[in-house]
Amino acid sequence: MIKVKDLHVYYGVIEAVKGVSFEVPEGKIISLIGSNGAGKTSTLNALLNRVKRKGEVIFSGFHTDKHKTHTLVQHGIALVPEGRRVFINLTVEENLRMGAFNNDENYEHLKEAMFELFPRIKEKRHQMGGTLSGGEQQMLAISRALMSEPKVLMLDEPSLGLAPKVIGEVFATIERLKKEGITILLVEQNAFAALKISDYAYVMENGHIVMEDVAASLVGNDEVRKKYLGG
Ligand code: ATP
């Protein structure tokens, strides 16, 4: 579904991603794991042309190079950004409407689907985004991204700062979305939880992919356990 070849990301003279290649096959959960500053967020942003990049990103045969972020969203890639970034001064419903910017005709139907997926979001639908708990904001951020009816959903650190119970709910939701046919690209510091639900994963370090394997094998790999899974 997504093929990335020799991707580089630059912030001025800093090269944050130094030639990574990977694939995200349709219907799978693929994870990028690795320590702080490895280049995971930059890679996700590069797939939506949110940062300056070189290399090839092909999405279902469509070369994304020269396209703006909103065009790529219309083609079916959506991002749940790090830190959630819900609109704090808009209500839950207004946040959802923003997510459906390219999809207004399906707004009501999709909104009901989101309320079914996250009943807690329905309860709070008239509340301002900024007044939700961290877990509720994460659910809202995921719902907002789903309002564009993506084929691929990218999630950047969805578990960051959440209580363990809520983290469980977020990962269960990601698995459910996979079952519903959405392809997932996941970036996580919580490598163990990510690998548990992933089909395949790439390990990033210092702008490079240094290891890749089926997720179950990475969990059993001594080096990965020591460096990324806390022994
Ligand atoms: P984290 O989990 O901490 O977000 P990461 O693996 O997602 O880490 P990135 O956020 O992609 O890593 O950062 C990769 C490198 O690029 C880091 O060295 C970071 O300092 C640098 N970087 C990221 N954003 C910018 C920016 N806007 N300007 C300059 N350097 C940046």
TrEMBL record:
Ranges for domain ABC transporter come to 2-231
Superkingdom field: Bacteria
Q: Which GO terms describe its molecular function?
A: ATP binding
Q: Which PROSITE patterns match?
A: ABC_TRANSPORTER_1 (PS00211), ABC_TRANSPORTER_2 (PS50893)
Query: Could you tell me the keywords of this UniProt record?
Result: Amino-acid transport, ATP-binding, Nucleotide-binding, Transport
SMART domains of this UniProt entry? AAA
Key word Calcium present in the record? no
Q: Which family does it belong to?
A: Belongs to the ABC transporter superfamily.
Name of the featured protein: ABC transporter ATP-binding protein
Q: Provide the organism lineage as a comma list.
A: Bacteria, Pseudomonadati, Campylobacterota, Epsilonproteobacteria, Campylobacterales
